[in-house]
């Protein structure tokens, strides 16, 4: 039995006793640990806690309840040290084992011993595994031509670790990616020192704590200076080498001999052949370019114990031309065969077409490539696997009378050699990922082929994206959020560019970061060297590319074989693409960019089952889906469902982990019927799980939070509140109790239960405060402020604290909003000076945000504060500034509001005529733009302003505007406007000349009450009836019938119109200017 996470440190038990600690997480061999326990009765509980933080830490917690004392012993074959709380063992490969407990721990022969008392006791076995990297603590940076100087410096550093050599080169479109990734890898692997042999023209590796500069003017004395600088003292052993020697060969010789290189004009030849390994199955070939990158090949060969083969740099001009011709041949052959032939028939037809006359179809490529490789180099490589540090020669086409490298595993390091090697060494040391995914972007061919596996233990879940699903954003999301170890592109446009959702990926500076260092497999004939370099700079540990285009269906078949070999069989990539059995020589088109050892992470421990791996995969997918929306969410949901079925088939459907999977799927499910089924399954599972409350309650809390969320989204607020209440009722088991409390507060506020809403919001605030969760505190303050039921002092505190929290968390929009709220709170309290300060700051904040409308709102508040203060001049200034700004940004509603504000200030100053002009502008602007409700709010200002100014024409404007509002506004608006319209008409008639009255009545009738009476809405019909009464009255025809009609209108309107009282007095007596022949009678005259 094994205890512990499948992807972490595991404790292996046999017959109930601990026997080994499995360290597959770091690809380290198991640690033997022999447990002995003398107890014959009693109980023991076992629990494993795991944490990851650079290192991996696992604690085996043992709880004993014994009827009698017992002796516990753990045999560990390592030196022991007594500590304050127990005994610690320092194991090989940076592994520490520590035993502690409630009883004293004593060092015993070959282990640790504990005397357990009767009753309850505790014992912890803690294992910590640190990553181990085969990289030294120093990186050497130099110009490309400083081969000799860099070789000397590297030879002065310890040879048991690889010393990276970085050549300074001119910047290119993606060189920043190279620099950032190298810097990250150096930091992650513990490199702390950089030695500059020349100054870079830009900041490089600025985070490394130690930066050394080593002058290189004197090559003879460089060894002494370098050794003194880097290690202190003088080297015990040196290897003299001539200034014009081959320093690549010299460096390998020095590293293997444990000597420091020393330049000497009279030095004998370097004994390279004596130290170059021969009894090895691996070779490293490097083309002599005369640049510092060549030294990386020597350092890598020494690290691998490989034979180093040095060849002249090839001339690639003819090679490229022949490869281009071959591409044209393949394209022409595929076109000639056409779409009618499918599958294996197409392959056979293609092979016959290319090998017309029985000739090798790739003979021309083989001839031109072989001509670039000296025969002695071919012989030195022999049958060994090969890593070729090359400028772009496809070495798999070397073919002589005696040698054919077509099926030789070859890794091509075509650019950035230090980055390639560092990536490989980093992956060899870091903790294994919890799970593994492969990502396939395919046109449809990949799914058509049956999937087979041949080896248990390496569990890689494929995510296949169709052309419709794929996009650059989806790709970026998946490779960042999930441990993707393999990416296969089988979707290309007519120019052979990789296409994702209709978007072609560029050939340089790829817009993606491959965080988990996958191998990238690309089926297009874009430059295999250029695109290979770009994917390595994006984070790939290796790249499989093609020399010429292979039809998608054939590529998919080849890829399925390669993917299986890479994953299930854990074959190195360079070996996975050869000897595949693919008919027709398809595999000849494919090359691997990387070393011959490049591979996916190995799994030493094969005990993980399919079901365990599936549950882990679901956990990773659920974590990725938690913050993802848009096109990525359904992809993640689909894959969770697929892996859930694997877990069910493996008999894991009755575990807490399976409950987590169901809950994760429920969170993503959009179909109500399927969601209800998931809820039923969750409830049945949780009801049957035999778990302690502290493990079971978090699952129930998550269930209630998710179902509450679904109910809220469906508008079922009562059900949502009930589930949220159950969730928070479980206390600390609720994964984010404060957030759920806030959601409850908003729902309660929506239901009008403000007291309960306030209580929930205050509880949320207190929890956020206790956790020092500033964003959470801010959200709580927002809800409390929206409730608006606090006393003035508390409301002001909310505004001040909300502003400060928003500033702290970097939310300028809310910072500005709370500052404006602070202005309002001070104004309500009568603290106008403080209100003006807050309002002025709010204007600045909104202006910085570019929020024109809120800036205008703040300007209005400022004007109101100054008006309340009695400073009418400043109030008028702010209203005028706001008006100009509102007109500038085209905010029609705000233009009207500022006109109204100006009218209010001018009225307060007694300038009623000027005020009236602004009131008129305000209402007319709102009516013209259809802002009926706001127009209704400001209409009384116009009417009262017209009365104060004695302007009957403005009264008619008020009546007409009000009538237009009544036509379309809802009842709650027009019911207060109708009396105002009628009153304006009555006052206009009283104060204006007959000509104006006639024109006003005509305009009103034609604009508002035109049409058939029965077709009019009630309020418009009412106004039409009022017009009838007033017209009859104006013509001195207010007979009994008209008075009865007026009385009915008064009754209908609740008496607010007072038409009977108005028309009971003849027009000639009521009007101040009734017109010629209708003069008002003077006192005493009839």
Give an overview of the whole structure:
This protein has 1086 residues and is an alpha/beta fold. Among the domains are: 2-129, no CATH class; 138-310, no CATH class; 317-371, no CATH class; 431-593, Rossmann fold (3-Layer(aba) Sandwich); 614-687, no CATH class; 691-789, Tetratricopeptide repeat domain (Serine Threonine Protein Phosphatase 5, Tetratricopeptide repeat, Alpha Horseshoe), CATH 1.25.40.10. Helix content is 50%, strand content 15%. The strands form six sheets. The chain has a ten-stranded mixed beta sheet, with helices on both faces. Strand 11 and strand 12 (111-116) form a beta hairpin. Helix 19 runs antiparallel to helix 20. 47% of the residues are buried. Residues 448-457 and 1079-1086 have low confidence and may be disordered.
């Amino acid at each position: 039995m094994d205890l512990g996470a499948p992807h972490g440190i595991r404790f292996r038990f046999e017959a109930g006793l601990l026997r080994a600690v499995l360290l597959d997480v770091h690809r380290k061999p198991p640690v033997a640990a022999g447990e002995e326990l003398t107890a014959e009765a009693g109980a023991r509980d076992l629990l494993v806690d795991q944490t990851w933080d650079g290192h991996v830490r696992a604690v085996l917690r043992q709880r004993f309840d014994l009827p009698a004392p017992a002796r516990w012993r753990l045999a560990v074959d390592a030196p022991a040290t007594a500590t304050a709380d127990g005994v610690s063992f320092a194991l090989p490969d940076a592994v520490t084992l520590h035993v502690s407990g409630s009883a004293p721990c004593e060092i015993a022969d070959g282990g640790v011993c504990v005397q357990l008392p009767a009753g309850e006791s505790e014992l912890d076995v803690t294992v910590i595994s640190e990553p181990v990297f085969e990289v030294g603590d120093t990186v050497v940076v130099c110009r490309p031509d400083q081969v000799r100087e860099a070789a000397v410096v590297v030879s002065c550093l310890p040879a048991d670790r690889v010393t990276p050599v970085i050549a300074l080169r001119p910047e290119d479109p993606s060189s920043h990616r190279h620099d950032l990734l190298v810097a990250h890898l150096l930091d992650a692997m513990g490199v702390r020192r950089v030695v500059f042999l020349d100054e870079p023209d830009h900041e490089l590796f600025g985070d490394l704590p130690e930066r050394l500069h080593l002058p290189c003017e004197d090559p003879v004395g460089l060894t002494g200076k370098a050794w003194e600088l880097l290690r202190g003292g003088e080297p015990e052993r040196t290897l003299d080498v001539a200034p014009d020697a081959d320093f690549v060969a010299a460096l390998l010789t020095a590293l293997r001999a444990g000597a420091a290189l020393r330049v000497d004009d009279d030095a004998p030849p370097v004994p390279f052949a004596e130290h170059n390994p021969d009894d090895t199955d691996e070779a490293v070939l490097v083309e002599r370019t005369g640049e510092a990158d060549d030294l990386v090949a020597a350092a890598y060969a020494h690290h691998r114990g490989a034979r180093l083969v040095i060849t002249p740099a090839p001339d690639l001009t003819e090679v490229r031309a022949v490869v281009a011709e071959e591409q044209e041949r393949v394209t022409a052959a595929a076109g000639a065969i056409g779409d009618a032939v499918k599958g294996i028939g197409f392959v056979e037809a293609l092979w016959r077409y290319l090998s017309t006359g029985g000739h090798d179809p790739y003979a021309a490529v083989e001839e031109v490539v072989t001509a670039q490789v000296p025969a002695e180099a071919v012989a030195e490589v022999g049958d060994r696997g090969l890593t070729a540090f090359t400028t772009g020669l496809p070495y798999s086409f070397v073919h002589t009378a005696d040698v054919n490298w077509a099926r030789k595993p070859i890794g091509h390091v075509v650019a950035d050699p230090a980055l390639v090697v560092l990536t490989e060494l980093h992956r060899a040391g870091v903790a294994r990922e919890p799970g593994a995914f492969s990502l396939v972007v395919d046109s449809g061919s990949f799914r058509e082929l049956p999937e087979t596996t041949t080896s248990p233990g390496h569990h890689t879940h494929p995510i296949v994206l169709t052309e419709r699903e794929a996009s650059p954003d989806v790709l970026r999301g998946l490779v960042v959020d999930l441990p993707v170890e393999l990416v296969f592109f089988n979707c290309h446009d007519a120019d052979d560019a990789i296409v994702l959702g209709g978007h072609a990926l560029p050939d340089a500076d790829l817009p993606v970061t491959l965080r988990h260092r996958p191998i990238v497999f690309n089926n297009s004939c874009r430059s295999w060297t250029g695109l290979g370099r770009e994917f390595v700079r994006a984070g790939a540990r290796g790249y499989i590319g093609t020399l010429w285009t292979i039809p998608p269906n054939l590529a998919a078949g080849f890829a399925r074989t390669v993917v299986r070999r890479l994953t299930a069989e854990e074959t190195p990539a360079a070996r996975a693409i050869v000897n595949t059995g693919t008919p027709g020589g398809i595999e000849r088109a494919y090359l691997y960019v990387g070393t011959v050892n490049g591979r996916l992470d190995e799994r030493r421990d094969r005990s993980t089952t399919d079901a365990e791996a599936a549950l882990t995969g679901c956990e990773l997918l659920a974590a990725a889906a938690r913050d993802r929306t848009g096109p990525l969410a359904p992809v993640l949901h689909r894959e969770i469902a697929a892996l859930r079925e694997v877990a069910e088939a493996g008999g894991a459907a009755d575990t807490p982990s399976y409950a987590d999977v169901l809950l994760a799927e429920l969170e993503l499910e959009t179909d109500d019927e399927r969601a209800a089924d998931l809820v039923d399954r969750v409830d049945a599972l949780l009801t049957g799980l035999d778990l302690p409350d502290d493990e079971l309650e978090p699952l129930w809390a998550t269930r209630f939070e998710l179902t509450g969320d679904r109910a809220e989204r469906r508008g079922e607020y009562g059900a949502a509140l009930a589930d949220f209440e159950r969730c928070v009722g479980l206390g600390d088991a609720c994964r984010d109790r404060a957030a759920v409390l806030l959601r409850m507060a908003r729902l309660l506020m929506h239901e009008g239960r403000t007291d309960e809403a306030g209580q929930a919001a205050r509880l949320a605030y207190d929890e956020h405060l206790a956790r020092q969760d500033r964003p959470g505190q801010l959200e709580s303050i927002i809800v409390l402020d929206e409730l608006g039921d606090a006393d003035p002092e508390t409301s002001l505190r909310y505004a001040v604290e909300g502003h400060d929290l928003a500033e702290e968390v970097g939310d300028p929009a809310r910072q500005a909003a709370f500052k404006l709220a602070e202005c309002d709170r001070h104004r309500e309290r009568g603290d106008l000076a403080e209100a003006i300060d807050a309002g002025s700051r709010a204007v600045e904040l909104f202006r910085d945000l570019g929020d024109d409308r809120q800036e205008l709102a703040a300007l209005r508040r400022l004007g109101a504060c100054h008006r309340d203060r009695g400073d009418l001049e400043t109030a008028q200034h702010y209203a005028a500034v706001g008006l100009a700004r509102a007109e500038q940004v085209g905010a029609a509603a705000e233009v009207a509001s500022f006109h109204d504000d100006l009218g209010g200030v001018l009225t307060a100053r007694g300038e009623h005529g000027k005020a009236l002009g602004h009131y008129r502008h305000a209402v007319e602007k709102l009516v013209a733009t259809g802002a009926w409700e706001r127009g209704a709010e400001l209409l009384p200002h116009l009417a009262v302003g017209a009365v104060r100014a004695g302007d009957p024409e403005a009264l008619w404007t008020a009546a007409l505007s009000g009538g237009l509002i009544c036509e379309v506004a809802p009842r709650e608006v027009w019911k207060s406007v109708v009396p105002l319209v009628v009153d304006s008409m009555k006052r206009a008639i009283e104060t204006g000349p007959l000509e104006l009255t006639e024109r006003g009545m005509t305009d009103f009738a034609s604009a508002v009450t035109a049409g058939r009476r029965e077709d009019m809405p009630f309020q418009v019909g009412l106004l039409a009836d009022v017009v009838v009464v007033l017209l009859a009255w104006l013509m001195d025809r207010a007979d009994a019938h008209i008075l009865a009609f007026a009385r009915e209108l008064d009754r209908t309107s609740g008496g607010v119109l007072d038409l009977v009282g108005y028309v009971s007095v003849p027009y000639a007596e009521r009007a101040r200017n009734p017109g010629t022949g209708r003069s008002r009678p003077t006192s005493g005259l009839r």
